[in-house]
# Entry
Amino acid sequence: MSVTNFINRTISLMYAENYILMPTIFQLIVLIVLYSAGMAIPIFNLGLVGNAITAHIYGAAIVVILSFFIFAAAMRGDSLKLKALGLLNVLFCIFAAFEGLFYFGGYTDPIYALMMGIGFLGVLFSSTAITVEVTQKSRHYMSI
Amino acid sequence: MALYQRSRIVPIFAGLELLSLTFLFAFGLATLLYDKFPLINAYQSALLSLHISFAMLTAFLGVALFALGTISKDKVLFYLSTANILFIGIAAAGGLLFYSSLDPIYSYIMALSFVGSFFSTTGFFFRSL
# Structure
């Protein structure tokens, strides 16, 4: 089985079984970890070395991968709201990731860190919204 | 009760709270990144003042959301608005303690309880739509 085929089947399963909730909640949990690690860096003056920045970068990578899965799973369905929120999730993730890369990559102006925070807010908003939408839908599916 | 059933006032208030929280976060992060205590420049105190102003606005809107959640028939709205006002209370206490002691741990508490408040408000908004 090719990789494309495997990803296709996984995404189909995610939507068909209403499992879009699983990556979304996982994304929310990783977002909280990412945020705690990321906010600890400027608050406690930890610098861009050590545990906190490692947790932050790995968390960001996991969140971006999960956001692509959520977007793909939302696109399989017929709910326009979920599709729009999935697209918002991916776009805000990419925005925050690029701002973070600029900041980490040498442009050490604090405006990049600020924009990273705004991108985080967008991801948190869309992720929470998808969770609430899917939870409300799943009450409907419960009787089937 | 009639207020909740007839009008769209609940999502409007939740959306205003979300906007206020977004500005609160933006100015708070700017305060964290640009300000060094004691403050010497005018723009630094302006950032801190904007942060505190939006924090007060958020607290007032949080009380309004709590009232709307209490009179609504939906239990989830009530739980979410209660969680929201609790998180706002923790954040406010953390902010005031940070301002009096300048200990970074209180700033961290303020930052962490912001996530809870934003989560509850977004949930409230989409639940009430």
